[in-house]
Amino acid sequence: MPRLPCLLRLPMTQADSPLTALFSAVVHTPFGGMGVRTEAGALVEMVYLPPHYAEKDATDAVAAQAVQQITHYLADPAYRFDLPRLSVGSAFQQRVWQAIMAIPCGQVLTYGQVAKRIQSAPRAVGQACGANWYPLVIPCHRVTAAGGLGGFSHHDAEDGFHLEVKRWLLRHEGVAGY
């Protein structure tokens, strides 16, 4: 199933836009929006969206469950997601994502620390983080560079949308210094 990275570059202002139609739900958040895609009773993808994306009500039960769980996380950063997910990614990416899911709320590890735990390399961990199909569920925002924030979702512009999302999520979870 193709991933939709182009969605983050195209403007959208109406709920009936062709791009909004690709999502089973779009949730407004303090950092912008979260697009949720579902298929055949499972979560397929979650995408960070800039604030100008229109909110969209859930079109199925899994999307409604995802919206509810995102809302719970926004109210309580220690909330743990439990959603049926499509199995995606390579065996290596899945190992990285499992290690990331073990990082407690309010804590961060560096790419190097995660790499050491799974006997890999920091750059490979960073690439797996950027390939995460389920942000928030797999909290890649809890992984940072040794000397600072690092990138996020394959983006690293200091004043860009994605790093602002990462900063917001870390502040939301009580992590200072970023």
UniProtKB/TrEMBL annotation:
InterPro entries: MethylDNA_cys_MeTrfase_DNA-bd (IPR014048), MethylDNA_cys_MeTrfase_DNAb (IPR036217), MGMT_N_sf (IPR036631), WH-like_DNA-bd_sf (IPR036388). Transmembrane segments: none annotated. One of its GO terms (biological process) is methylation. It is an enzyme of class 2 (transferase). It comes from the Bacteria. Pfam families: DNA_binding_1. GO terms for molecular function: methylated-DNA-[protein]-cysteine S-methyltransferase activity. Residues 91-175 form the Methylated-DNA-[protein]-cysteine S-methyltransferase DNA binding domain. Its EC number is 2.1.1.63. Keywords: DNA damage, Methyltransferase, Transferase. PANTHER family: METHYLATED-DNA--PROTEIN-CYSTEINE METHYLTRANSFERASE. This is Methylated-DNA-protein-cysteine S-methyltransferase protein. The gene is ogT.
